[in-house]
Amino acid sequence: MKTSLVLLLLLLAACRVVDYEGRADPILMGTPIDLHQNLIILPGQAGVFIPGTRIGDRYRYDGNCRLEVRTVSETPQTVFADRFTVERIVQEWERFTQRETGLRRVRMDVDGPALLQFTTVLYLHSDRQPDVFRLVCGHLQDSAQNPRYLTADEIRTVLTPVMTLHRPSSQHKEQLQSL
Fold this sequence. Notes:
Elements: H1 2-22, E1 32-35, E2 39-41, E3 47-49, E4 64-69, E5 77-79, E6 82-97, E7 104-105, E8 114-125, E9 132-142, H2 152-159, E10 163-165, H3 170-177
Antiparallel strand pairs: 1-6, 1-10, 2-5, 3-4, 4-9, 6-7, 6-8, 8-9
């Protein structure tokens, strides 16, 4: 079991490298993201889901993105239309069981088939809205169906028409080639 877990981790790490090196438009630090309309965060919440476009029937569960702030307030908060900059990118995944006992986190393969949650976290910056923290995009996928992170184009689709994740500039592409 430990061997299969190690192999899965190696496969995911390799996919991430291919994902960034094999694509013409990876998400890089410094990439701009535009919010085209104001979004309201409800009282007691730290974020709001982006009411964007569904990515189709390719996955059992649709991709989604959530814009998050640092401060939870007892009153509604407005995130105003603005341009943000990606400062850092983190990708994470978690494994959940599908047993009749309900969806829950698991550590090993003892629970049979699983759902994997793949998350790409884009840490954001705006001088005008320093409380805006990050954009978290992800999806659940069956472990038997070539699980992977959402691509940059899939994230763009999920965000449309509320937000625009820009494609890398020539400067960003040169930065990528120098890595």
